[in-house]
Amino acid sequence: MPLLGALNSGLTGLFARQKAIEVTGNNIANVNTPGYSRQVLDLTPAPALNVQGQMIGQGVDVLDVKREYDSFLTNQLKDKNALLGEHSAKSGPLSEVQRIFGIGESALANDIETFFGSWHELSVNPDGNIERDQVLYAGENMLASFEDMRSDMVGVKQNINDSINSKLVDINQKLEEVAELNESIQNREVSGMVATSDRDRRDLLVKELSGLLGCKTFKTGKTGIALQLPGNGVPLVQGNNAYTIDGEYVKTDLQLSISVGQSTLEVNREDLGGELRGFLDVRDEVVPELADGLDKLEYNIVNAVNTQHEAGFGLDGQTGRSFFTRSASHRNETGFADPEDLAFNTGTMQVTVGGDSTDVSIGQGENSLNGIRDAINAADTGALASVVFDGTDYHLDLTPRTEGETISVDASGLSSEEYDAEFDENFSLQDGSYIYGDDPSVDTFSDPDALYFGKGSFDLKVDNDPAVPAVPAVTTPVSIGPGENSLNGIRDAINASDAEVSASITGDDGSGYSLVLTPHVDGASVSKTATNLTDNDETFGNWVDIEAQPSTRVAVTATDQIAAGFESKSGDNQNALEIASLGQSAVIDDEETFVGFYGGLSSKIGVEAQRNTMALGGAQDTVTQLENMRESIVGVSIEQEMINLTLYQTGFEACSRLVTTVDELMQTVLNMKR
Length: 674
Known about the structure:
Helices cover 44% and strands 22% of the residues. The protein is built from 11 helices and 28 strands. The strands form 9 sheets. Strands 5-6-7-8 form a 4-stranded antiparallel sheet, with helices on one face. The protein has a 4-stranded antiparallel sheet with strand order 16-17-13-27, with helices on one face. Helix 3 (108-124) packs antiparallel against helix 10 (594-634).
């Protein structure tokens, strides 16, 4: 019996060393395999037997092949890898945006300075065609730079969308593989098999997914793990089920979603981590903020230059002409024949741009299409108003300063309260003339120039001799146009109508002004037989979206249209000087110059790029340190494995010698009995 026990001990030792050599060989073979954890053999002494009161060992048992694992380091690597992925994803787009907002001879700031410098050159020689051509060229070149930068920014967003879209394929494949490994590990380990390689592979996938989307990991049971989005906790992997992330373009941006059961949930920037979060931070925060700044810069340049240019005269004698024009996104549906017609009521209208509302006051003399345009621009509503001619009528166009923002207009606050005086039948005969407005029962007028009345027309009837039917009465229509609906305006309109009366204004004797109608024939009667003066009830109609066209462009088409002076005469350079001075004025928010504001945008993206570079370097160092720590604990060391191999080889040889010795002893014993 003792010899058999010794033989068994030798055999188990042989088998154990053989298995140890296999495990060591596997470690050496996977020394460069990413994510591989060193495997070790779990040995334990075989249960001892009681032989005649003595406990005799029965060799060694192989319990399991285990992998070295440190849960703390593994979790740290996942978290830090998510930060590394986020900063790494930002690096490329931020560098591209920094290039777009660069400072140098080819930068937008230089084009802005060149544009206002061309106005200064024009002020030196306001009649020069070369200088005027240079103004047009500099304006077009500056706008082209704005457009190029916008196009480049759109390109950055599109590149980000493409990068995210391509990442989704890899992410979904990894999620599917994690779910499959969950099932594989469970099946293997439940049946008593070893699944160390599957666990290593799953850990590697989870680490990579953390870098891609910052997923969180939770243990489920003894063998499984669950993955969730870091922000909203939406599941990505549960057991052997994986939920894929899909991308669909909404307008120009890729919108992410995930389907869980019968529900489809949107995945937003706040729900993510890792590379996807970094990409979306740049796409949805950095790029829009800089694009808004670029739009604000152009908006202020266009508005300031247009306002000043409209105050001057071109060599063609025209004034009120804008230097720039912008394509609108919203237009009022109703057309108007005359943009100077005081067709609207006065009061307050509300313009809402992107959710922010601004009250715009419309006073007397401003209640025309042009007047409302100027009032909206002066109120800084966030939209540029312009009056455009569509070939038939004039319309009011509104363009939001930020592309894509919605616009609504509420004109219900424009009322007719200041136009409520009726030009009625209250004429009284005094000393051969007919007086309107001095009857205490009707309105008196403290200001003969105030636009008290409505617009339209009325009929003025003069009956030269009511007693003689053969002499017919003469009825003359009198038209009251824009700006004529005051007492003085009605007087002038009557006198211009060739009615057989003379109109004049009397007062002020303390009771107000009155309109006096004196017939050309003594004794003739005067009456108003029909009234068609109405309040200014014109409305904008519906506001409709119009198709986007090339954005800002130079509206001036000829050099003689450039308004260099305040008068249409040769040598007048006053308006050119005013426009040139805008380049050095604190126009934007009354605080910054145009070039200074652009410099702020460039500085902002430069600081952001530098901050991300520093954060990226820190994240890389942290991950590298954690990887080194992991390698020192669970990684494969060739030197250590070679030492182990020598030990196991020596042990194997010793066990072999033991088996041989026991075999010889048994042969000797058997031979003794023969």
